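Sample entry (235 residues):
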Amino acid sequence: MDPQRLFDGAHIRITRQGCGPLWATFDNFDAARRGFDPVRLPQTATTAGYAPCHVQTSGNDWYLGPDLEAALALTPGTGRALGISMGAFGALLFAAALGTTEVIMVSPRFPAPLGWPRTAKIYATNPPPGWQARAEQATRALPRGVILYDPHHPDDKAATRWLMARNPRLRAVAVPFASHPATSLFRESQSWGTLQDLMLTCPFDALPAAIARLRRQMRLKSERYRVSIAPVIPS
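Predicted structure, serialized as tokens:
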């Protein structure tokens, strides 16, 4: 089945393939981005019974460009979303518009830090006024969400605390020594496919515990984890 363009603006594009509940993914920050990248829809989502959907941005504008209000006027459907870093902010913004009531956020980032010291470089230069209120509203309205974060990364920890303080329905899964993003250890230990299967098929209420179990299984397969944990293990 050919992909369908749900929204086609100068700054935001939304593409879906198939019917049924959505598996929505989002562009991440890319310092080299110059316009829209070729869209890639994950076929693993189709196998799991989802209609893959990807939300793109033509620049690193955190989805806050002139197209946003029109893009948010979509008719809600149902489904699950995965957003990584800047994409996690996109997943928050579009949850209501897409009807993705189950949102997975990996190492979430915002256009600018919200009350915590700025340590990372992947923030917007001049985020538009009102974005904080929009983030607050979207966070409070999210029915369910899971956050993967590195508790040793200052930005990961601060963003996760900010989100959870505003929505008690959110659940956090710590992935120590992952750095950014928190899925990097799963990829390094060749567990990314297993993690992806969990995110697509696991009942959402059981997902945090399932990811935590996988993290415990894969951590010693990661050279980065072994090197990072060695100094804190009692001799």
